[in-house]
Amino acid sequence: MKTTPRVFLTAEQADDLISGIKNDKHRLMVLLMLDCGLTASQCIRLQSRSFDLDGHNLHVYSLRKGKIGSVRCIPLSSRLNSEMVRYRESREGFRLKNGNAFIFPSNSSSGHICRSTVNKILTRNNSSPAIPRLHPHLLRHTYAKNQLSTGTQIRKLGELLGHAHRRSASAYAVPPVEEKGQETELTEEPAKQVARSGNNSTGQPTCVTVGRKDIINQLNGLIQRKINVVIIGAIGVGKSHILQEFEESVRASVSIKVLKLEDTKSLKSALAQMLIFILKTDQQGVYQFLFPGYDYSEAVTRLSRESIAYIAKEIIKLTERKFYTLIIDNVDQIGSYSVRILELFKDHFTIVTTARAIPVSRSSFLWNFEIIRLQPLGRASALKLIDNLSEGLAPEDLKLYRNHIYEQTYGNPRAIAEIIERYRKEGVISKDVIRRVRHTGALPEYDCTFIVLLFLACVACLRYLNHEVQNASFRVLGGIALVFLFITRYFFKFSRKINV
Predict the structure, then answer these.
(1) Ordered DSSP codes for 214-258
(2) What average pLDDT score do residues 335-343 get?
(3) Which residues have C-beta within 8 Å of that of residue 181, sequence separation ≥ 6?
(4) Where are the alpha helices (H) located in 154-212, listed in sequence order?
């Protein structure tokens, strides 16, 4: 498989980017990816113990459990070391925290900011028209190119980037050592840059765009017409990726205002945060009147003392009908009280959400929703995704490799990404290795309701066959089956889902 040249920032573009960032946290984040080659996932998980400022070193712990060489040491540039010292000094009490304290903390359950936040920070700080699309892997490519230009060997570059195999590191070489004539600066169209790198703006596999353009266009069209939407699909087909892509696109739009309901389980806290956001962005005068001198967390705490219904009604009272688009990550585990709140919201906001399956008893809020059913990728799209995600791999039999992955995954994007990641852990991808690697997570599901009912009906007929053969055991078995036939309707009623 031919190695694709990477795009990168020139020295002037990199310097302009850094000098234009005023926020010290944002500047530190960009420098960690630009001067250490970190991915967004590695960056957001950095802890205080990771930094050896006296020795000018950064210790990066592998995100993969059990991986050999799980800690790698990356030299800190002078400007990054100085930036980290200033960052610590600007945070009151930061030095007193234990070594497990996250460098970029958050109030989320993980304790640190999420990858989508990194992407938004990069977009917000990109003021240069010469850089049409700034994303974490672009900074990582630039780091690899700079290392090679100073004489770093491929083997050493692989260690710095955290790759187990030389070939993986060669894919990040900009340009590849044996192809110096293919050096490519950042002059291509944004869409082509993403296609070349095989990743989207968050560094995730391009599960979003491959085979999904019609779905994305359909979703955008429905939201433009203020129609509520729920995306239904099995696990791994890309519901969350499409929702994330949609959220990023609408947040960049000036015509659509976005609210996000983070968690339907902790509903009161989520609604309180939503209300505070509305007050601080669109109703600042009301916020100052209700919470004079209160910071964000204090206002949320005070508001959380009110009832859920009160907070929901206040949100509706303060917002214009259909002015906001409300994004809800997932409603699979939605509770009965959350259903009542969303029944209030469904006619006031334009709602977009996702689900694998929702019990009919809790689907009343979806009555005026347009349902988009997300299926696994077709063969052509699945093979295209396999090619995108297999960049840097060299299977012995490419045709066998592609067909085997498709047969194992049935076109499920998440399963495709996982099985390819499994292949990356093999030194040589021979034919035997290709056949040996399997994936069971994407096996198709079959509804056996009809088969069960047919079996019980046949056994129930034994009750009447008893009169012909004079066998008492037939009467007993048939009677038991008949009882089961009567009560199964109640069990099936509770198991019905809206995607069946």
Answers:
(1) HHHHHHHHHHHTT--EEEEE-TTSSHHHHHHHHHHHHHT-SS-EE
(2) 86
(3) 175
(4) 154-161, 166-172, 190-197
- Give the model confidence (pLDDT) of 87-104 as tens digits: 887 765 555 456 678 888
Place of tokens 């990477």: 6
What is the C-alpha separation between 442 and 468, in angstroms, rounded? 48
Which pLDDT band, with edges at 50, 70 and 90, does 169 fall under?
Answer: low
Q: Across the chain, what does the average pLDDT equal?
A: 77
Q: What is the DSSP string of 116-143?
A: HHHHHHHHHH---TT-S---HHHHHHHH
**Two tokens at 230?**
């729920």
Look at residue 158 and tell me whether its pLDDT is greater than 60.
yes
Of residues 197 and 367, the one with the higher pLDDT is 367
- Euclidean distance between the first and the last CA atom of the chain, given in angstroms as a whole number: 42
At 374, give phi and psi (nearest 5°).
-95, 120
Which residue, among 500, 219, 479, has the nearest Cα to 356 in the 3D structure? Answer: 500
> What is the H or E stretch that residue 379 is in?
helix 379-389
| Residue matched to tokens 């004489």 | 151
Pick from 484, 185, 176, 237: nearest CA to 375: 237
pTM of the model: 0.52
Of 90, 131, 118, the C-alpha closest to 26 is 118
Both tokens of 129, joined, read 């028209």
Rounded CA-CA distance 383/346 in Å is 39
Q: Which of 379, 365, 376 has its CA nearest to residue 331?
A: 365
Is the omega angle on the peptide bond into residue 175 within 30 degrees of 0, that is, cis?
yes
Which pLDDT band, with edges at 50, 70 and 90, does 198 fall under? very low
Supply φ then ψ for residue 208, to 5 degrees.
-75, -50
d(CA 325, CA 260): 8
